[in-house]
Amino acid sequence: MSALVDPVVPVFFLSDSTGISAETMGNALLIQFPDTKFERTTIPFIATVEHAREVVAMLDGLMDGPVTPLVFTTAAEDVVREELNCTRAPLIDFFGMHMQRVESVLGMTGRREAARLHGVGDVQRYNSRMAAVEFAIEHDDGQSLRALDRSDVILLAPSRCGKTPTSMYLALQHGLFVANYPLVDEDLERSELPAAIAPYVERCWGLTTTADRLSRVRNERRPGSRYASMDQCRWELRRAKSLFEGNRLPTVDSSAKSVEEICALILQTRKIRAKTAERVRRHQEENPA
Known about the structure:
Elements: E1 8-14, H1 20-30, E2 37-43, H2 49-62, E3 70-73, H3 78-84, E4 91-93, H4 94-106, H5 123-138, E5 153-157, H6 163-174, E6 178-182, H7 185-188, E7 204-208, H8 211-221, H9 230-246, E8 251-253, H10 259-286
Parallel strand pairs: 1-2, 1-3, 3-4, 5-6, 5-7, 7-8
């Protein structure tokens, strides 16, 4: 007799724009169900009633299957949203749930345009985020040490600890200029920060993980190598921890946290650091030597 297997719940994120908002808000709810397996599908740019009807037909067809799908939508266009709401599948309409309430509080009618959902209307903010993404790409994995003085955050960690996705999320979602630097054996054998990074210690964060997870991730890239061995992973993580502690760097363990959670911790620490620096500055102004 075969063991029972928990069903995988199909989840759909629908949008008449990129789908990023639907994914973000939907996943914020799904993360509360860690024991449930989800199969996620994003359907962006549902710009016409005809396309919406095709999506509804597909969702309705799944209602006859063994597992009921779950649907999240942030469609802003009224005609598209109304069509999507015709599905028999359980649908959570983030836009429809909240837009009328916001309009009521503000005493005015919103434009309900799909493109505005991701801030395209705010050109300055959009351009600043794109500049941050370009900076993150240029400074990924220590490829460039140019203009580190422009960085808001510098991530330090051994290879494959989650530096790149964290950098890209902070850039794209928060417009921060993020550089990330891989700690190699030569760096880990010393107690000081790498020379190029040391002047910016107040902007540095350390990322770490578990040796077991790091070894598994590295084995996917280089199976059976010294790079992926448990002994090497343990040594690198132990030395990295010592380096972070010795230089008083805030550290985030990426082994059991999502990228969103890691970034939230970094943002929170940045605020605390900024407030502390401001208090020190004011104290020095009020109490000159």
